[in-house]
Task: structure prediction
Amino acid sequence: MSDQGRTIVLVSGGMDSCVTAAMMHKTGDELLFLHVNYGQRTQQREEKAFHNLAEHYGIPDNKRMVCSIAHLAAIGGSSLTDPSIPVSNADLHSEAPPTSYVPFRNAHLLSIAVSWAETCRVQRIAIGAVHEDSSGYPDCRPEYYAAFNELIRVGTAGAGISIVTPVIHMSKEEIILLGAKLNAPLHLTWSCYQNEEIACGVCDSCALRLRGFERAGIPDPLDYAVRPSYNRI
Result:
C-alpha cells in the first residue's frame, strides 16, 4: 500500500485489529485509533487492550477516540450484548451465524469512522475484518466492504474516503505469522467473548485464536481457563 498520509484504524483490542494497526504503522502513515463500545460483555477488557495498543504505537490522546453505541445492547439479539443469551461453545464447522453475531454491528462502527474521517480529512480507514470469519458474520465478507465503499462515495461530500481491509483474505495462522514479523504486540490483545480476567478457551473467538497460534507454531501469550487443541478442526 502506498503512503496516503493519515489513516484511521478501527482497533477493537483483538488480534486482527492489532496486526492491521502494525501494517498501517509500517506504511509511515500518521495513525488515528478508533474504539467503539457497544455494550459487549468484555467491554472494559477490550478498551484496556485498545489503550495498551495505542500506547505501544505512540498514539496521543488527541488522536484516539473511544465511542459508545450502547443502544446495540438495548436492541439485543446477541450473546455478546445480552447476558440472558449464553455464549455458545466454539463450532468451527458451522456456517450459520453464531450467537455472538451482533446484527449489522460493523455498519455502525464504520459510520463513526467515516464521520471522523470526513471531519479530519482522512482518506483511509483500516479495519481488521477477516473473510475466514465471514461464514458466521456476514459483515466480514469482501463484498460487504466493496458495497460500503460505494456508500461512502455517494454519501460524503467528495471526501475521497475509502475502507481498506488488509487482512481480509488471510487465515488466523497467517495473521499471527505476519504479526510476529512486524513485531506486533499480540501479548497486549484480547480475544475472548465472555471473560475479562482469564480467557475462556471455548468460545468461537478463543478457538480461532488458539488454532491460529497452534498452526503458526508460536505460543499464545494469553492465559486460558482451558486450552483445548483445535488444530485438527
The two ends are 33 Å apart (CA to CA). Strands lie at 6-10, 30-37, 64-68, 124-126, 162-164. The chain has one domain: 6-184. The first helix runs from residue 15 to 26.
